Amino acid sequence: MNDFAPVPDFLYGTAWKEDRTPSLTGLALRMGFRGIDTANQRRHYFEAGVGQGLAAAYSAGVVTRAALFLQTKFTSRSGQDHRLPYEPSADLSTQVAQSLASSLEHLGTDYVDSYVLHGPASGYGWTDADDEVWAAMVKEREAGRTRFLGVSNVSLRHLQQMAAAHADGPDFVQNRCYARLGWDRAVRAFCKEREIIYQGFSLLTANPEVLRHPLVAGLAARGKATPAQIVFRFAQAVGMLPLTGTSDPEHMEQDLASRGLALSAESVQAIESLAG
Ligand SMILES: NC(=O)c1ccc[n+]([C@@H]2O[C@H](COP(=O)([O-])OP(=O)(O)OC[C@H]3O[C@@H](n4cnc5c(N)ncnc54)[C@H](OP(=O)(O)O)[C@@H]3O)[C@@H](O)[C@H]2O)c1
Question: Residue 207 above 60 pLDDT?
Answer without folding.
Answer: yes
